[in-house]
Amino acid sequence: MLQAKLCMPYIGRNIVKRKKIAEKLRLLPDYKLALLSAPAGYGKTTAVVDYLTGENLKLAWLSIDKADNDPLRFWQYLLAAVSQCTGNDEINRTSLDADLVASNITVDLLISAIETLSQKFVVVLDDYHLIDNSIVVN
User: 1 exposed, middle or buried (CB, 10 Å; 0-12, 13-18, 19+)?
Assistant: First the structure.
């Protein structure tokens, strides 16, 4: 497992700050789901990292690539990201296989880990647009 996929990327100091996006991102904890969409190169990841760096929120980060269209791989990484955020090691002790993924036990594991948190948290699925496998999407 590549730990770099579970870490918020470093953005440096010399970034273009987009005030309108920053104002909207400050509202992020008030929503159950938020989608930030724009063409490549518009600074979505940079804006999210810049916002999250200044906030005291629990964070599960997953940098997605095309290989994550494999349902087993996707769930292994997503559950690892949430496990790091929550400190819930039960997820890491579960051996995932294709049958478990197909039976939606992965969703139960995810919900179980999230329920342990007493504060708001954020899950970032960076580059989610690369996911085109209907099994992963659903």
Answer: exposed
The token duo for 97 is 């296989």
Q: CA-to-CA distance for 20 and 82, rounded, in angstroms?
A: 29
The model's pTM: 0.83
pLDDT tier, 103 (very low <50, low <70, confident <90, very high otherwise): low
Say how many domains are in the chain. 1
Tokens of residue 6, six digits: 């579970």
Specify the pLDDT at position 128.
Answer: 93
For residue 63, what are its two tokens? Answer: 């940098």
Residues 6+ apart with CB under 8 A from 35: none
Query: Do residues 72 and 101 touch, judged by C-beta distance below 8 A?
Result: yes
Nearest one of 124, 134, 80 to 102, comparing CA atoms:
134
Within a 10 A sphere around the Cβ of 53, how many other Cβ atoms?
Answer: 11
**Whole domain around residue 112: which residue ranges?**
3-137
Following CA atoms 60, 63, 69, 74 in sequence, which dihedral angle do they give, to the nearest 10 degrees? -30
CA 121/CA 12 separation, integer angstroms: 24
- Give the separation between CA 101 and CA 61, rounded to whole angstroms: 20
Question: By three-state DSSP, how is residue 2 classified?
Answer: coil
